[in-house]
Amino acid sequence: MESYIIETKGLTKYYGDNPAVKNIDLHVNKGEIYGLLGRNGAGKTTIMKMLVRLTSVTQGTISMFGEPFIGNEKRFLNRIGVMIETPGFYPNLTATENLEILASLRGIIKRNAVAESLERVGLPYKDKKLFSEFSLGMKQRLGIAAAMIHDPEILILDEPINGLDPIGVAETRDFLKELSQDYGKTILLSSHILSEMELLADSIGIIHGGVLLEECFYKKLKEKNAQYILLKAEPIQRVVNIIEKILKIKNYRVSEENTILIYDKEAQTQNIVKVLAGEGIFVEAIDKKEDSLEDYFRRLTGGEGIA
Q1: What is the distance between the alpha carbons of residues 165 and 216, in angstroms, rounded to a whole number?
Q2: Cβ contacts of 158-161, under 8 Å, gap ≥ 24
Q3: Which one of 4, 125, 171, 296 is at 20 to 30 Å from 244 when CA atoms are compared?
Q4: Is 140 helix (H, G, I), strand (E, B) or coil?
Q5: What is the Cα–Cα distance from 108 to 106, expressed in whole angstroms?
Q6: Helix, strand or coil for residue 155?
Q7: Terminus-to-terminus CA distance in the chain, angstroms?
Q8: For 226, which DSSP code?
Q9: Dihedral sign computed on CA atoms, order 58, 62, 68, 71
Q10: Would you give per-residue pLDDT tens digits along the chain (307 residues)?
């Protein structure tokens, strides 16, 4: 039987009579980057809080490192680094001073722990700038540094690229990949940014309305995404008639004015253009395409996009 480094069964959280998340079964493999993907308010943060007991579990079970995680066992928590919601630090202290206090509270004796953590996230060591003067992106970086300061085996990061500029996003992506690939860290992160999840995650769990709709390796998710031919031509109704009656194509849909998506795998772009031209139809554009993660998310959630 396969053992996961993080596993939940039927994980559920109610606030009063309202379910925040329902029957979540997560399966996170050691050393991978697992992305919880969903709109704001989908339940991603609630799941993460339950994993580290920052909020109670209504029902369901959690396993960490192949063992049941029932309470705030120190033997588990010492192996996990966490950044959930906006990181809290002393506003009148510098990044270095804040992390030195944290290291002292954690009992960390590694000499260069603070300097190494700051270097990893691109913040200067011994800088004089106070936390109260930090941008949102700098606060996010410091939160990640704090989560990594004790060299944990698992990192649980809630929206780690929130507030970062494009360069900061790319740098964060690179060092998270490095932590996973070169140091064997397991990273569970949440995001509502589809493009970044595509570039970063090994596995993805799609959360919508407090329910885990799908969980799989990203490579397998890519294989599920449909390939199609995008055709732009008009008048649209006449084009549809030709597609159905002459080309005998049934698997298609009209996505917007004068645009048709053809999902028939046997359809050939050259033949479509030839037939339409023979019928006096000017083809504005025709191209082979593949569904993005955004498209797949929309299909899973009944047409709702992500923001």
Answers
A1: 29
A2: 158/44, 158/45, 158/48, 158/83, 158/84, 158/85, 158/189, 158/190, 159/189, 159/190, 159/191, 159/192, 160/83, 160/189, 160/191, 161/191, 161/193, 161/196
A3: 296
A4: helix
A5: 5
A6: strand
A7: 38
A8: P
A9: negative
A10: 458 999 999 999 999 999 999 999 999 999 999 999 998 889 999 999 999 989 999 999 999 999 998 876 777 888 999 999 877 899 999 999 999 999 998 887 788 999 999 998 889 999 999 999 998 888 888 999 999 999 999 999 999 988 788 888 888 888 899 889 988 999 999 998 888 888 899 999 999 999 999 898 877 776 666 678 889 998 999 999 999 999 999 888 887 767 898 888 788 999 999 999 999 999 999 998 877 777 777 777 766 656 5
Q: Edge to edge, what strands does the sheet with 211-217 contain? A: 80-83, 154-158, 186-191, 33-37, 203-208, 211-217
Place of tokens 């339950």: 50
Q: Give the total residue count for the chain.
A: 307
The amino acid present at 102, given as its one-letter code, is: L
Tokens at 230, concatenated: 């995008």
Query: 21: Cβ–Cβ under 8 A, 6 or more apart, which residues?
Result: 11, 12, 13, 43, 46, 47, 50, 207, 210, 211
Tokens 């009148």 sit at which residue? 92
